[in-house]
């Protein structure tokens, strides 16, 4: 190796672009951990998504001193690319479903974005409420950022979600699980590359709802998705509940700056 250059690795990992003496380039993620399996969830996710979409190739993982590491192929990127192709690609991913016909996943996410692996439910409504919303709520309560007024609106929002789900059939699709604009990029040919997954099997509207929380997806993305795998009637009413989950995740992780957004969304859903 002749060069190690720090690059953005998200809010959890240290990340480096490595260049070797023969000019090969690699992407290295590192995180303090006592387990060589720290990145197992991401590895499995990349392997699953890579059967349908372009993703970084997993080259090696293990321990380096007191840090877990994950070595990936390096993909040169550019800021703009084919969002229509991105939408179609996500639609193709969502067409893949769980082998057992249930909702969940079987590998832990050590970064805390999801629940423990090995949790499966026969219905999406119960999985989403128990393993997503309620988990986030407990974390927020432990940080003393959950008020009585928020809880009253939350209970009404959950009842509203249950009512909407009575007329919607959920299929356990393969999901990225954390699909905001920081988790895709475009290669040198302007083609989409999917990164940093937290995969599980769930209703595909979950991923689409998350895309709408922060900027980064344009109309071409949604058109591409609809052309590949049209969303079911009434999806506009259901997407805000997945936005609520994602904002609750950020409130529990990053603190007070997201409380106002959660409160406003709860008011609109109650």
TrEMBL record:
Keywords: Kinase, Transferase. InterPro entries: Fructo-/Ketosamine-3-kinase (IPR016477), Kinase-like_dom_sf (IPR011009). GO terms for molecular function: kinase activity. Belongs to the fructosamine kinase family. The keyword Transferase applies. This is Fructosamine kinase family protein. It comes from the Bacteria.
